[in-house]
Amino acid sequence: MIESLSDSTIYMAYYTVAHFLQGDTFRGNGSENALKISPEKMTFDVWDYVFFKDAPYPAKCGIPKEKLDQMRREFQYWYPVDLRVSGKDLVPNHLTYFLYNHTAIW
Prior knowledge:
Layout: H1 4-15, H2 18-21, H3 44-51, H4 65-78, H5 91-105
Helix pairs in contact: 1-5, 3-4
C-alpha cells in the first residue's frame, strides 16, 4: 500500500508505458491497446518485470516476453528522470518525497 503523497510522486512512472496499455489515449475509455494486453494480466509480477531491472520474466503471466520487453525498454529510456520541475511550494513535500520514494523504489 502506498500513501497518497508517495503515490503523487511516482505516478509518472506509469506514464512511461501508459500509451501501450490505454489504446494511445489517457482517457482509458476501454479501446484496445497497442499490445493487446488485458488489465487482468497486469499483475504485480508483470509490473515488477517492467519496472525493476533484476526482476525475472513472469513466465506464467500469459503475455509474450517481447511485449513486456518493449514496455521495459520504454520505462528504462525515461527513467531515471533527468529533471523534475514544480512550484517552490512543493519542495518541502512532493519534491522531497519524490527523491525519497524514487531512491527507495528504484
